[in-house]
Design brief:
Helices cover 31% and strands 14% of the residues. It contains 2 helices and 4 strands, in the order E-E-H-E-E-H. A hairpin with a 5-residue loop joins strand 1 and strand 2. The radius of gyration is 13 Å and the shape is globular.
């Protein structure tokens, strides 16, 4: 999973396309969240992944429950 991190700690990545099935989008989103958690620096304390939202390229964001991604 490739992603880029902004200076403020915001991470951007593509997890699918409009043609993907719901199951494929869910699987890709969970894999992305898992990759972010694995990339957590050993010195980082506390909650590393605080908020997640999904959006189309120019659409509004939809908030995602973080524990449901990591569980």
């Amino acid at each position: 999973v490739e992603f880029r991190v902004e200076k403020a700690g915001i991470i951007h990545a593509g997890v699918g396309k409009a043609s993907f099935t719901k199951e494929a989008l869910v699987e890709n989103t969970k894999a992305f969240a898992d990759a972010i958690n694995r990339a957590k620096p050993s010195g980082a304390k506390g909650v590393y992944l605080k908020r997640v939202s999904l959006s189309s390229t120019m659409g509004p964001g939809i908030k995602i429950d973080v524990p449901s991604l990591l569980g």
